[in-house]
Write a structure and sequence with these properties.
Blueprint lengths: L3 E2 L10 E4 L5 E3 L2 E3 L3 H9 L4 E5 L14 E6 L5 H18 L3 E5 L4 H16 L5 E5 L3 H8 L8 E3 L5 H9 L3 E5 L8 H6 L4 H12 L2 E5 L15 H8 L8
Parallel strand pairs: 4-5, 4-11, 5-6, 6-7, 7-8, 8-9, 9-10, 10-11
Antiparallel strand pairs: 1-2, 2-3
Amino acid sequence: MRKIYLHKRFDSFLDEAVVLNDGSLMPKTGIIVKNDDDVTKATKLGYRLLDCAVDDNLKIKDVNPQLYVEVRISKLTRGKELHNNLKSIRANLIADQADLCLLNLSDDNECNNQIWQKLEQLKITGWVKTLGIETDKADALEALLKNIKFKPNVLRLKCEDTDLLTIAKNNKLQVEIPVKGDIAALAEIADKYHTSPMELVLYYFNQKGIIPLVEASEMIENPQVNFNIKSADMATISQLFVKLSV
């Protein structure tokens, strides 16, 4: 993966970015923030990508306009409630100055298409820079991709799902995954690389070309990921994040 730097510093993993399928840049690691304290702590530690829900109303760019703001939209219902929610969502996205808007797909393909069309209009008018999808259902994603004007830039998954990763690869979608599970269980492997379990996980995802999203309570200061993880260790680490076959 080609390294792109967001700022003049060249000594931190946090300054690197990936190139999305529209040519725009996105930081290589992010923090899930839920309140103003999370935002303050993350920015002080140097994190550039901050993820939040659309109704959190955190106004992150008031803290630092150079931050990359990722905003998630939850599953919505149809009809009048859908219309009212979209009106509120539009207002919040504009207030948040969102760089990336993620739509959480529902089981209703028609509803998904309606919402996506509204988001496409926000992109056309410049209120949102990039669009993404959050889902764990390959069928819903494939159905949406058949009927849209703007292809998503980012795909957010709960885990490494083979079917969804294949769709992402075929459509050049950047994948991101929240870091969950017993990270401390990786301490023995981390010791081999003279690093911490969280740094190990960050570089695991970096080697796979996936953006990790870390809970604010788990973020670490100035992660250094200048090593290569051996294939056997990659396989062991993946057991925490790969979807198990049923």
